[in-house]
UniProtKB/TrEMBL annotation:
Source species, domain of life: Bacteria
Keyword Glycoprotein: no
Protein name per the record: Large ribosomal subunit protein bL21
GO annotation terms (biological process): translation
Length: 103
């Protein structure tokens, strides 16, 4: 059984017991979240697709940690113009452990 959820403008395929990183959520470590933005639920041959969300479906997840991702380097360069600029960015994330999928 798995579900497709929407978080932080992205879609994630999740199943019970897996851990995933989503964009930063305002929740404390150890809190249980109920994610109701469920786009699709698949249980064997039974497939429920939302229009745009599946009615009555939710995913329960526990907040494991918060952190920052790997550094992404941004380089801008114009040849023969003496222009060179480098910048870095580290995105904040929340790590979630999926506890249950309620369809």
């Amino acid at each position: 059984m798995y579900a497709v959820i929407k978080s932080g403008g992205k879609q994630h395929r999740v199943s019970v017991g897996e851990t995933l990183k989503v964009e930063l959520l305002k929740a404390n470590v150890g809190d249980t979240l109920k994610i109701e933005d469920v786009l699709m639920v698949v249980n064997g041959a039974d497939i429920k697709i939302g229009e745009p969300l599946v009615a009555g479906a939710s995913v329960e997840a526990e907040v494991v940690s918060h952190g920052r991702g790997k550094k992404v380097r941004i380089v801008k360069h114009r040849r023969r113009k003496h222009y060179h600029k480098e910048q870095g960015h580290r995105q904040w994330f929340t790590e979630l452990n999926i506890k249950a999928i309620n369809a």
